[in-house]
Amino acid sequence: MSRAILATACIFALFATSSVVAQPAPSAPRPKPEDTEQWTPVPPIVTPGKTDAAPPSDAIVLFDGKGLDQWVNTKDKASAGWTVADGVLTVAKGAGNIETRRQFRNYQLHLEWRVPENVTGSGQARGNSGVFLASTGGGDAGYELQVLDSYNNPTYVNGQAGSLYKQFAPLANSMRPPGQWQTYDVIWTAPVFAPDGKVTSPARVTAFQNGVLIQNDAVLAGETLYIGKPFYRPYTTAPIKLQAHGDPSPPLSFRNIWVRDLPDGGAPPKP
Questions:
Q1: Average pLDDT for 137-157
Q2: 3-state SS, residue 212
Q3: Which residues does 116 contact at the CB level (< 8 Å), separation at least 6?
Q4: Residue 218 near residue 166 (C-beta atoms within 8 A)
Q5: Residue 271: what pLDDT?
Q6: Rg for the chain (alpha carbons), in Å?
Q7: Cα angle at 242 between 129 and 71, to 5 degrees?
């Protein structure tokens, strides 16, 4: 083959290769805003209360200042036995703990409580009570968000107001002075158990006190115990319990208690 023919063939081959390489690949469709828009399912309409303390339209009102028909005594399921006057629920320590007639799984809870202005005592013996986010049995069995006068009242930090008792101290001490109302807003995510009783998802708590974040998705190691290490006992739904603590200080009061069931990941409340 002559040098001229060989050179021509090389040039042709190079041109052909360059042409193949130079051809653009098919372009992907241009993304559109509609590609990432979700239109269903449409969230339900919930009408908020006139104030943050007022229950929204889908809330279950547990105490509105008029009576204790939503509550029973924890020990024997008889009448609750605490005192209702002037729209306020006050602990009757001799009557023992009370709990809701209904049982719940995952929920949003609003609750207000007040330490009396004339409170006495110190440490755990000063305005002590508790909100058990799931009552799994008699006495203090379950998962407790501590209620206590923690305004200038030192105690162990995982037992002060806003603590998940003996497990998590609050992220802040946002107490108002005795005689003023305190507010808890809580998101409770119940633990999930396998058929053999093993925990597949632990209990979680997010809570605010007086508008201040005090528990941020805290993961519980089990039930809150006064003595010993926490552990889990399988359950599906449970009442919410209020504690009648035996300390000698004057009793606390509660008002504006309501709950919103959160059905995603949990069973609806039982009547």
A1: 97
A2: strand
A3: 127, 178, 179, 250, 251, 252, 253
A4: no
A5: 45
A6: 30
A7: 155
pLDDT on residue 21: 54
CA dist 161 and 190 (Å) reads 21
CB 259 within 8 A of CB 104: yes
C-alpha distance from residue 56 to each of 100, 180, 268 (Å): 19, 24, 17
Task: Output phi, psi for 10, to 5 deg.
Answer: -65, -45
Give the whole-angstrom CA distance, residue 210 versus residue 193.
33
Name residue, tokens 């029973």: 72
Task: Let me know the angle formed at the C-alpha of 156 by 176 and 203, rounded to the nearest 5 degrees.
Answer: 85
Q: Provide mean pLDDT across the span 209-216.
A: 98
Q: What would the mean pLDDT of 16-26 be, rounded to a whole number? A: 58
3 φ, ψ (degrees, to nearest 5) = -60, -35
137-148: average pLDDT: 97
* Sole residue written with tokens 């042709």: 12
